[in-house]
Specification:
By secondary structure, the protein is α/β, with parallel strands linked by helices. The chain has 2 domains: 73 residues, Orthogonal Bundle (Arc Repressor Mutant, subunit A); 113 residues, NAD(P)-binding Rossmann-like Domain (Rossmann fold, 3-Layer(aba) Sandwich). Helices cover 45% and strands 16% of the residues. The strands form 2 sheets. The protein has a 6-stranded parallel sheet, with helices on both faces. α7 packs across α8. The radius of gyration is 20 Å and the shape is elongated. The termini are far apart.
Length: 206
């Protein structure tokens, strides 16, 4: 059975993403569904059903090979293709991510940074080229950048996101605590500190 990205349920994709992190951190030769269940709280049945969406046979009586299963998940979720991303907004948060260089980002490459403050662009130390925001369309097109980390103030988030979408950006990780209204074709992943704290509080209140 060949896997099909569009046939994998969204909730399964989220679990596979979590499972990928577990597999990448594993130092064992094999990982069993029982061990995965202990780490995640998912039932062994759910784990096996999720893995079945990948197609093929990845388990033996001893368990799953972490490297082999991780590679299958990456391929199924589209992580086997290299993607370029940029950072927009180089204040404290944006500049911190600007210098976040790690092998964990092996399938992603930081290609550029943008800021409305030209002086900031000129003085910041950076491993990649920095540009004023008015060059977003030009740079995104020339470098074929697909993803943007949006680290601008709340008031500027919507208009900046619209500029990114018009420039050809296909996905935005939004750190501004505001809902973005964009075409459904633009994928948005919100990272809100308040939501994270509230979600944690719900778990603490159980």
């Amino acid at each position: 059975m060949e896997h099909n990205f569009y046939k994998i349920p969204s909730v399964t994709k989220e679990r596979l993403l979590h499972l990928l992190r577990i597999l990448e951190q594993s130092t064992q030769a094999t990982v069993t569904s029982v061990q995965i269940e202990a780490l995640t709280g998912w039932s062994s049945y759910t784990i096996r059903k999720d893995i079945a969406y990948l197609g093929g046979e990845y388990g033996t009586s001893a368990g799953y090979n972490p490297a082999v299963l991780a590679a299958a998940i990456k391929k199924a979720l589209g992580f086997d293709r290299h993607r370029l991303f940029c950072i927009v907004g180089l204040g404290r948060l944006g500049s911190a991510y600007l210098n976040f260089v790690t092998t964990e980002l092996e399938e992603f490459e930081l290609a550029a940074g943008f800021d409305i403050n030209v002086n900031r662009v000129e003085i910041l130390q950076s491993p990649v080229p920095l540009y004023p925001v008015y060059k977003i369309a030009e740079v995104v097109k020339n470098l074929s950048i697909e993803i943007a980390l949006l680290c601008v103030p709340t008031a500027a988030a919507q208009t900046t996101a619209e500029k990114l979408a018009a420039a050809g950006i296909r996905g935005i990780v939004n750190f501004a605590p505001v809902t973005l209204y964009l075409s459904p074709e633009i994928a948005v992943q919100n990272v809100f500190l308040l939501d994270g704290l509230r979600s944690l509080t719900i778990k603490l209140n159980r």
